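Z., the sequence and structure:
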Amino acid sequence: MYWNGPLFLRLPEEQWPMSQFSPLTLDQLPEHSSKVITTLTINVKSPPFEVFNRFSSLNKMQRVLSFVFRFLDRLRRLPICSGPVTFMERDTMLSVVIRQTQLYYFSELFKILETRSTVTPPSMAQLAPHVDNKGVIRVG
């Protein structure tokens, strides 16, 4: 053990042994070596049927999605209801699923209905499509 350090430290500095140390440049340090980082981002628009395929019935899907939305409300510290899923929650979930499906398949029609009141394709204009207060496309 070194209690006083190596013996050469007691000698004058001129008598110390020559050091073999040579400092490294920043390029030689692994922490500072330049690395090329490449990222690839792909936005895949997945169809909403993935949600449908996970459930055996529409009622089950509405109940599960209602509980998911309750959980999200709890995370946002909003007042939530407890107990069984209410009719209003199930109806809201049905509207959400329908809206997401329509946004996927009829995105151009949504854009047309938001910007103009009339629909240009004559075949669609005969149906008189409009967006209701829940954001769902309705005809008639």
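Residues 49-138 form one domain. The first strand starts at residue 130 and ends at 131.

Let me know what you think.
H.
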